[in-house]
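Can anyone check this?
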Amino acid sequence: MSISALAWVFGGFETFKYVLIIFGFFISILIKEVNAKSEYLFYYNNGISKMQLFAYGFLMNFVFSIVLILVINVVLKLV
């Protein structure tokens, strides 16, 4: 989220939207992989692969980000 906030400060809301959706998720996955590589036991025990977990996480991040962007756009138009 801090990378997305920097994009908002330096590039405005238009840049923030794309950075939040794409780069924010991948940076968080990268940090997770470097710091806690072997902490996926819960998902392995339930039969979910790491790729399925990443795909589902990206999908949820995408949906949440789109909803957040729409809400912010509506609020900005009302102000």
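Reply from J.R.: I decoded it. Helices lie at 2-35, 41-45, 50-78.
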